[in-house]
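REQUEST ID: PR-0412
SUBMITTED BY: lab tech R.K.
PRIORITY: routine
TASK: structure prediction, single protein chain
INPUT:
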Amino acid sequence: MPRGVPGPQTGFVLRLLRRYPSEERRRVEGVARSRPEARVRGLESGDQEVLDLMNKGATVQDQIDSVVKANKAGIQTSVTVILGLGGRKRWRQHATATGKAAGRMNPPFSLRSR
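STATUS: complete
OUTPUT:
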């Protein structure tokens, strides 16, 4: 089915979205109606200090929430992390926090590392 054409699951997704606040629901409805095959989210690191050092501009919790909401809306997600991003000083914190964040996201599509 071409993108942008409502499919059989669109009704289910839209009913599910009624649980969200109206402003957020409008944003997610637009995405659901466009029937994306998958959305990729660049987590990069689950360590907030590492994200701040690289000027990510998003919090770990924001990223977790966005993937969880997409999953609930029936949108497949793929999450990307960057191995070694914590460097020699923060490698353990980066690895541990990234594993925890990825586990909370539970992306049904894939978890990619670079």
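NOTES: The chain is about 50% helix and 15% strand.
REVIEWED BY: pending
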